[in-house]
């Protein structure tokens, strides 16, 4: 029992796989200052900051902060048809409702449910009460324009909104993966709920192997489409977008979630100050060596964007 | 680099300080490492009974002063109507009772408690070389002849003494020795003869009088022992066997050939010694010892607190142990659980109910509460009122369980008392959210993880040995703190990650 454990431990160490303790202790704590957390934990503030830095984001249609407003949604909802309701400080996709169309007096969700006005009012009211925020703190609800997924990506993800998660370390993108929702994940791009993680070659933007439930798969389980070798459109633009987020929020170790909108190109959906480690499984490689490489550069945050992107491309071979 | 060292130095310092203090307490004062350990102490008493004359009475008793191998805890002087004065120098103590006029047959008591303390070795001052005793003939010639002969058969003072003792103790002593043994001056007192002969060789000696502390003895008789100074230190000899040793439990009471009591103005009817052997808790003995030595921390002992406060601390001090289990399970093993300290709180709740009953009650109440919570979901209540409703239902469920267990005669159901219902309500709320958002599987994994950690923490927190150690050596919490700080800087993999990333370990390239 003892030896295989040690062998596995050393093998992971050798291959530079990052564990949660190392992520928290070596990267998040030294490089992510507490005072910047509220910027990314509150999606409304985050969106404003990113917009101020000229970073493309999905439009904010409305935000609700008081129970009074939550009780008088009717007028506000009247002009909205396709939108997403999000808790401003939710995590892991909890509490997000995607409305794809409006019928006479109810709304249709991406999951196929029909919601009446009081359903939506209850949901918003739950959000305000802190149902989805960490520690149950009072929260705000955010109405966001629905992203029209780039039709090229539709082939890979028949349902839901796929997104691309880029880990940006000190302004340098170090690893990326695409997250494809499945029927099982309920249209959510959340690996833990059954979405597919697809590794991406940082230099070329082509997809590598796909992983679902920790296992390598060849084809999308819903559409049977092959996933590997797909070229992500506007990859360079996407990389630049992700690299610029560091300066906007001041976090050294950052997860940037980007969606590809059919009309507007790559948009930053949200930022994450504690991005997960599943990205290593999707890429079948460890983050440790790449992070160490960036750490060896002399204050990489100060380098200009093209240098940083060059470094990122070099990391692909690591 | 300096930052990295900082935490390590701090952690190591805490660990060393904590364990060092505990070690010191064990070594120096015999604080017991195991619960329910008993030690032996002896209560020794000297009783003097007098028949007073007409005038003032004065009685002087030699008291134990320097007692090798034994420490003195408490002494009492009991005497009715007498004034007491204790004279004390480094190597001699004596009590003087005095009264101007008294009737009847007054009794004077001296009582003291002794415990083994191998740290004490001080005995008596360094002696002068004695003058050669001026003896009459034929004793003087015999003495010279004996010492010369013994000197020829010995190498040093130690062997000299042994040889001399064996000659004096011999069944058929030689002519010169027999001369001394039969002499009226010595009245067959072999110890006195040996001391005289050793003085003839200018060897300093001392007679020791003491009591052997073995069993309770209502009528103890003082033993005589021979101490010989070899120029560096005192050597002790059993005068009857000639063997060189000092029994560990020989209480050295007074030195010299004279009687331990001097009486003026009265007649000594009886001098009575008794020894009582006591079994005492090692802990209370160690406490007394520490206080006797003026150990600074003895004043900060938990034993000084009121019993009620003590019992609270007995529980509180275990919380860091539970928290450390939590740290290990989360950061080293990677078990997922609800909340940060919820498992420790559940473990504390198990303390009230016992493990089996606690687990049953926990599962039943959480399961029923969860059902109710899912029903509440349909009523669309706001967060805080919903939590309060769940809490109310939990209290009702607890009440029902108690009533039910009363009916079926299952007593543990009644011990529910302090089972923290707020914790249960929070568990239910948290579980239902995880259930809805991430599915039943995650909810089950997290609650199973919480229960596993709680059970482990409970088992450790209720170990009598650990409870004892933490309570007697609260400084061990510094050790726990040190290890917790070290765990805080552990950046290696968690056990669960070895499984999670197994694909990454196996692939070559």
**What string, H for helix and E for strand, traces the elements of chain B in order?**
HEEEEEEHHHHEEEEEEEHHHHHHHHHHHH
Please give the count of helices of chain B. Answer: 17
Please describe the biggest sheet of chain A, giving its number of strands, its sense, and whether it closes into a barrel. Answer: 7 strands, antiparallel
Oligomer state equals heterodimer
Structural class from helices and strands of chain A?
alpha+beta
Major interchain interface with per-chain residue totals: A-B, 34 and 29 residues
What's the N-to-C terminus distance of chain A? 32 Å
- Distance from first to last alpha carbon of chain B: 32 Å
Instruction: Please work out how many helical segments of chain A DSSP would assign.
Output: 12
* Domain tally of chain B: 3
Instruction: Name the shape of chain A in a single word.
Output: globular
> Average pLDDT of chain B, to the nearest integer?
83
How is this fold's topology laid out?
The complex is a heterodimer of chains A (318) and B (509).
Chain A: H1 2-14, H2 20-31, H3 37-41, H4 43-52, E1 60-64, H5 67-71, H6 73-78, E2 83-87, E3 97-102, E4 106-109, E5 114-116, H7 117-128, E6 141-145, H8 151-154, E7 163-169, E8 172-180, E9 196-200, E10 207-212, E11 215-217, H9 235-249, E12 253-261, E13 265-272, H10 278-283, H11 288-296, H12 305-315
Antiparallel strand pairs in A: 1-6, 2-3, 2-6, 3-4, 4-5, 7-8, 7-12, 8-9, 9-10, 10-11, 12-13
Helix pairs in contact in A: 9-12
Chain B: H1 2-29, E1 38-52, E2 57-63, E3 70-79, E4 83-88, E5 93-99, E6 107-116, H2 139-152, H3 157-169, H4 175-182, H5 190-200, E7 205-212, E8 217-220, E9 223-229, E10 234-237, E11 250-255, E12 261-264, E13 266-281, H6 282-292, H7 307-316, H8 319-333, H9 342-353, H10 355-379, H11 383-407, H12 421-438, H13 440-461, H14 464-472, H15 476-488, H16 495-500, H17 502-506
Antiparallel strand pairs in B: 1-6, 1-13, 2-5, 2-12, 3-6, 4-5, 7-9, 7-11, 8-13, 9-10
Helix pairs in contact in B: 1-15, 2-4, 3-5, 8-9, 8-13, 8-15, 9-10, 9-13, 10-11, 10-12, 11-12, 12-13
């Amino acid at each position: 029992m003892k030896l295989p454990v040690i062998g596995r431990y050393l093998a992971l160490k050798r291959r530079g796989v990052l564990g949660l303790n190392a992520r928290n202790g070596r990267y998040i704590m030294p490089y992510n200052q507490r005072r910047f957390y509220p910027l990314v934990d509150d999606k409304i503030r985050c969106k404003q900051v990113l917009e101020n830095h000229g970073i493309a984001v999905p439009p904010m249609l409305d935000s609700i902060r008081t129970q009074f407003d939550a009780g008088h949604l009717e007028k506000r909802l009247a002009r909205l048809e396709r939108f997403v309701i999000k808790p401003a400080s939710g995590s892991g996709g909890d509490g997000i409702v995607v409305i794809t169309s409006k019928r006479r007096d109810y709304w249709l969700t991406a999951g196929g449910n029909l919601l009446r006005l009081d359903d939506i009012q209850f949901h918003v009211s739950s959000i305000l009460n802190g149902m989805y925020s960490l520690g149950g703190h009072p929260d705000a609800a955010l109405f966001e324009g629905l992203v029209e997924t780039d039709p090229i990506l539709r082939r890979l993800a028949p349902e839901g909104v796929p997104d691309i998660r880029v880990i940006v370390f000190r302004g340098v993108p170090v690893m990326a993966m695409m997250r494809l929702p499945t029927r099982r994940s309920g249209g959510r791009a959340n690996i833990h709920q059954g979405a597919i993680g697809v590794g991406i070659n940082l230099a070329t933007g082509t997809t590598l192997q796909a992983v679902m439930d920790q296992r390598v798969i060849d084809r999308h389980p819903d559409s049977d489409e092959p996933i590997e070798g797909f070229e992500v459109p506007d990859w360079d633009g996407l990389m630049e977008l992700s690299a610029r987020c560091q300066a906007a929020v001041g976090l050294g170790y950052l997860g940037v979630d980007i969606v590809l909108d059919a009309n507007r190109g790559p948009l930053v959906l949200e930022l994450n100050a504690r991005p997960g480690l599943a990205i290593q499984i999707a890429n079948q490689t460890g983050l440790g060596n790449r992070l160490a490489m960036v750490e060896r550069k002399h204050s990489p945050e100060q380098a200009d964007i093209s240098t940083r992107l060059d470094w990122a491309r070099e990391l692909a071979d690591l | 680099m300096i930052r990295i060292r900082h935490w390590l130095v701090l952690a190591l310092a805490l660990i060393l300080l904590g364990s060092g203090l505990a070690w010191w307490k064990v070594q120096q004062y015999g604080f017991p490492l195991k619960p329910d350990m008993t030690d032996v102490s002896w209560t020794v008493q000297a009783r003097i009974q007098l028949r007073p004359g007409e005038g003032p009475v004065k009685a002087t008793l030699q008291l134990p002063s320097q007692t090798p191998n034994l420490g003195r805890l408490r002494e009492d002087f009991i005497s009715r109507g007498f004034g007491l004065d204790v004279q004390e120098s480094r190597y001699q103590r004596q009590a003087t009772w005095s009264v101007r006029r008294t009737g009847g047959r007054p009794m004077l008591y001296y009582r003291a408690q002794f415990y083994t303390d191998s740290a004490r070795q001080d005995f008596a001052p360094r002696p002068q070389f004695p003058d050669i005793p001026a003896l009459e003939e034929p004793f003087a010639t015999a003495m010279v002849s004996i010492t010369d002969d013994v000197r020829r058969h010995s190498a040093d003072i130690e062997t000299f003494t042994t040889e001399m003792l064996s000659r004096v103790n011999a069944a058929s002593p030689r002519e010169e020795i027999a001369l001394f043994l039969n002499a009226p001056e010595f009245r067959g007192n072999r110890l006195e003869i040996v001391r005289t002969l050793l003085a003839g060789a200018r060897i300093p000696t001392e007679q020791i009088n003491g009591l052997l502390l073995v069993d309770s003895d209502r009528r103890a008789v003082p033993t005589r022992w021979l101490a010989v100074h070899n120029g560096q230190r005192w050597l002790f000899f059993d005068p009857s066997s000639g063997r060189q040793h000092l029994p560990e439990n020989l209480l050295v009471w007074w030195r010299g050939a004279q009687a331990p009591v001097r009486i003026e103005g009265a007649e000594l009817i009886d001098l009575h010694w008794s020894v009582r052997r006591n079994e005492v808790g090692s802990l209370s003995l160690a406490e007394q010892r520490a206080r006797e030595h003026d150990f600074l921390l003895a004043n900060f002992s938990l034993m000084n607190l009121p019993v009620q406060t003590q019992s609270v601390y007995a529980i509180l001090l275990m919380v860091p142990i539970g928290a450390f289990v939590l740290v290990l399970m989360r950061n080293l093993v990677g078990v997922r659980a609800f909340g940060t300290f919820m498992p420790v709180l559940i473990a504390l709740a198990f303390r009230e109910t016992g493990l089996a009953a606690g687990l049953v009650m926990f599962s039943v109440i959480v399961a029923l509460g969860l059902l109710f919570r899912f029903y509440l979901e349909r009523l669309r209540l706001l967060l805080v009122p919903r939590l309060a409703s769940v809490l109310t239902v939990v209290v009702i469920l607890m009440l029902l369980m108690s009533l039910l267990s009363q009916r079926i005669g299952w007593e543990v159901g009644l011990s529910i008392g302090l089972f923290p219902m707020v914790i249960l309500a929070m568990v239910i709320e948290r579980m239902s959210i995880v259930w809805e958002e991430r599915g039943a599987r995650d909810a089950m994994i997290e609650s199973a993880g919480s229960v596993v950690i709680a059970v482990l923490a409970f088992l450790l927190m209720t170990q009598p040995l650990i409870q004892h150690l933490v309570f007697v050596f609260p400084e061990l919490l510094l050790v726990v703190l040190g290890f917790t700080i070290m765990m805080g800087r552990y950046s290696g993999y968690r056990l669960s990650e070895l499984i999670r990333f197994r694909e990454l370990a196996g692939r070559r390239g």
